[in-house]
Amino acid sequence: MGSTIYDEFLRVVSSVAVDGAIGSVQDVNGLCMTVCGLDGLLSIGDRIAVATRSGKFIQSEVVGFEGGRARVMAFGPLDGIGPGCEARIRLSSRGTGIPVNEHWLGRVVDPLGNPIDEKGPLSRSTHLQPLRVAPPNAASRSRLGPRLDLGVRALDAFTTCRKGQRLGLFAGSGVGKSTLLSMLAKGAGCDVAVIALVGERGREVREFIEDDLGPEGMARSVVVIATSDAPPLMRREAAVSAMSIAEYFRDQGKSVLLLMDSVTRYCMALREIGLSAGEPPATRGYPPSVFAELPRLLERAGPGAADQGMITALFTVLVEGDDHNEPVADAVRGILDGHIVLDRRIGEQGRYPAIDVLRSLSRAVPGCNSTNENALTRRARAVMATYERMADMIRLGAYKNGTERDVDEAIRLMPALERFLAQERDERSTCAQAFSQLSDIMKMAL
Question: Is residue 40 helix, strand or coil?
């Protein structure tokens, strides 16, 4: 009789689905916690809720293992967490996602999908858009679409962009990246703009949203923000969440413009996570995982499958010390479909946006512009290159007019070209207008 009751008890217990498990924090070292008691249940990327001494739970993530014990980092501050604090995991919620839908347009959210714009709760979808997915299959994704009006003359004419293209915006600090991004968000010919501010200064967030982006740009945008004081997991997640939101709208067949400022701060967050998890520093202190994660993120942008839309992406790269050959800049330049260089010297001369046309290029230009347009931009580049080569002699008065025909032409055309490259923040343009104005300028040489 007793054996029968015991067998029935075992049958009932084994049929119960266990949804959660509880472990504890063993120690805290730097930015990482070591969690024990969940052996065999955890894997990289799993989310854990860790309790503070006051009973508040902080969302955390498994970033590594050491000696069979999980290394965990928190999405918030570690204040109040110490040895013995409870760590919970829900086994049924391992697949992380973000509940985005079309009602998110016009809203500002944090990397976890929580509203931070004081406009009330978000309308949340029952569908979770996955945060970590593989890029579209290289053999089945669509080719680049037609050219896209970016709304900035210098870019439309000299680094013409196609739908689904990915461009890097390389600049040092304070050269006008945020202003140029706002011009693109308002003027580009797309259905939806997704803007990720990764490690941005907290003071500048409202200025960017209210002054640079404005109501018109905000109406078709979703802004994801993690300021510079946020934990590294939040800064990393800002880039990942923005990419997932862009993929959601791409899957709806929309043309999406993804603006991310900046990839450098995303890589810095990855560096903090990797070093805290025990990875060895390699290139300039960046662990190897940074340069493995970077292409996984950037390759997710671009054309989707045949029945989907496209993500046209511009990623800003904050070059440290204006060194355009530092590791992150070099890696990004090799992955993307072109690069735009902002030069501090041009900005100091008062011309904005401070785009260095001669050092910028779009790898998709030959396939989207006409033969006449390509010839026009080549000739304009040649004029600017000639002027730059002789600039010192011209300023010193050492060049005598009539010595070289090409130099005389450059001196005559350069003022008009400088006016063409300059553009006010609220001024808009199209590719057709840009090439028409450039053509009128070049006719002055005849």
Answer: coil
* Domain that includes residue 417, residue range: 372-445
Tell me how many degrees the CA angle 399-401-403 measures, rounded to the nearest 5.
Answer: 80
**Residues 6 or more apart in contact with residue 333 via CB below 8 angstroms:** 168, 170, 339
Q: Look at residues 337, 365, 393 and tell me which one is the last residue of a structural domain.
A: 365
Instruction: Specify whether 344 is located in the same domain as 399.
Output: no
pLDDT at position 203 is 85
What pLDDT does 39 receive?
85
**For residue 331, how many C-alpha atoms fall within 13 Å in the half-sphere facing its CB?**
21
Say whether the peptide bond before residue 262 is cis (omega within 30 degrees of 0): yes
338 and 396 in a single domain? The answer is no
Q: How far apart are CA 378 and CA 343, in angstroms?
A: 21
Highest mean pLDDT, choosing among 126-140, 199-213, 246-260: 246-260
Residue type, 205: V
Q: Map residue 321 onto helix, strand or coil.
A: helix
**Could you tell me which residue, 7 or 223, shows the higher pLDDT?**
223
Arithmetic mean of pLDDT over the chain: 90
Q: Look at the chain and report how many structural domains it folds into.
A: 3
Question: 10 in a domain, yes or no?
Answer: no
- The tokens for 259 are 């603006």
Cα separation, 75 vs 226, whole angstroms: 11
Residue 13 has pLDDT above 50, yes or no: no
Residue 205 C-alpha from the chain's centroid: 16
Residue finishing a domain among 70, 90, 110: 90
Whether residue 359 is found in the same domain as residue 422: no
User: Quick one: pLDDT at residue 19?
Assistant: 60
Whether 94 has a pLDDT exceeding 60, the answer reads: no
For residues 169 and 315, is the Cβ–Cβ distance under 8 A? Answer: yes
Q: For residue 209, give the DSSP letter.
A: I
Q: What is the mean pLDDT of residues 61-83?
A: 92
Question: Would you tell me how many other CB atoms lie within 10 Å of the CB of residue 209?
Answer: 21
**What pLDDT, in 10s, does the model give residues 226-280?**
999 999 999 999 999 999 999 999 999 999 999 999 899 999 999 999 999 889 9
What pTM did the predictor assign? 0.90
Q: Are residues 329 and 441 in the same domain?
A: no
Q: Within this chain, do residues 242 and 110 fall inside the same structural domain, yes or no?
A: yes
Q: Are 430 and 147 in contact (CB under 8 A)?
A: no
DSSP structural state of residue 426: T
